[in-house]
Prior knowledge:
The complex is a heterodimer. Chain A is 0% helix and 55% strand. Chain A is mainly β. By secondary structure, chain B is mostly beta strands. In chain B, strands 2, 4, 5, 6, 9, 10 and 11 form a 7-stranded mixed sheet that branches. In chain B, a hairpin with a 6-residue loop joins strand 7 and strand 8. At the A-B interface, strand 4, strand 5, strand 9 and strand 10 of A face strand 4, strand 5, strand 9 and strand 10 of B.
Amino acid sequence: SQQGEEDPQALSIQEGENATMNCSYKTSINNLQWYRQNSGRGLVHLILIRSNEREKHSGRLRVTLDTSKKSSSLLITASRAADTASYFCATAGNTGGFKTIFGAGTRLFVKA
Amino acid sequence: EPEVTQTPSHQVTQMGQEVILRCVPISNHLYFYWYRQILGQKVEFLVSFYNNEISEKSEIFDDQFSVERPDGSNFTLKIRSTKLEDSAMYFCASTGGGSSYNEQFFGPGTRLTVL
């Protein structure tokens, strides 16, 4: 099954540093999305990258997609304590229902 | 900005009881979804719904679960006889039709606690 799997599982950095999270998946996709979730809260959509795109930026976020390697990365530059959260990649497939499959997530902790 | 809404935000129920979780998707969207997230685990797909019928469902979505779009705005998930292991956050999502590139918009979730 198509499945996003992130690494690392957990990441602890100092405020101001960059954070890089990686995601791998197994099958062909239509798009890949990154979400953020604060503990016990809802999902915040960060960025969507289409299968024909290689890189996308949004503020301090940079997402890359390599469909040949079936992988994506999320870079958060100049991290802040408020970036502390879990980050999930999610892939949308080719079936008519366009369901989204989530990975297990990376827990990011940014120390002030 | 349009958003997906869900009610209630938190539901507590006794094992064996029926619960109905409610969602109002974004008004011009055509595809609707339910996902669940057990505490500390990843978000899991339950079911997708299009044109008044289920288009895809996961193995989690067994006979205890059903979905309905009773009117033009609501989308509901019913669990007929809740089990302890149904305790989770349940997210509704919707997406517009016409393009497989569309972003899924998620609601804030309903936390279901089964005692």
